[in-house]
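Why does residue order matter? Because the sequence determines the fold. Keep that principle in mind as you read this record.
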Amino acid sequence: MNRLSKGYVQIYTGNGKGKTTAALGQALRAAGSGLKSFIVQFMKNCPYGEIHSLRFLSDWITIEQYGNDRFVLDKKLPADNDIKVAQNALQQARKAMISGKYDIVILDEICIALYYKLLNLKQIMHLLLDKPEHIEIILTGRYCPKELLEKADLVTEMKEIKHYYQNGVSARKGIEL
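Structure:
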């Protein structure tokens, strides 16, 4: 099995489109080099296109979805169950990180989970402190806290300049879904 000699912490944040796409692209690139990725998607349960596509790469990429964003859409506080699901997702990511089976662990939308207080910053900082040397960790989502930005080795901010949503275009299957 190929191994990374040194793993870093990457963050994709900002209000622009492309954070999850960048993280998935990294997993795709890694698979082409024989590296294995584990992806945890927080607050997502929709059958996005990547879920179907990644079935073809299941020898290299494992993806699991935890929770949903219904409470956000309903403009409500998260329920206790939303918090439990996010805690379970973080626990699964930790297990994957220390299992020895994966080279990259992606925590998709973890910054949003932090923002909505499904998780706390201390938990994420603890996860990063426990990261094995050869594991690459990728965190995504808007509203990334300054403390995580400072801890990361690579930070990319996706900045929205223009988006067709502003003209009433809904999310499109195969592009946003």
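The two ends are 33 Å apart (CA to CA).
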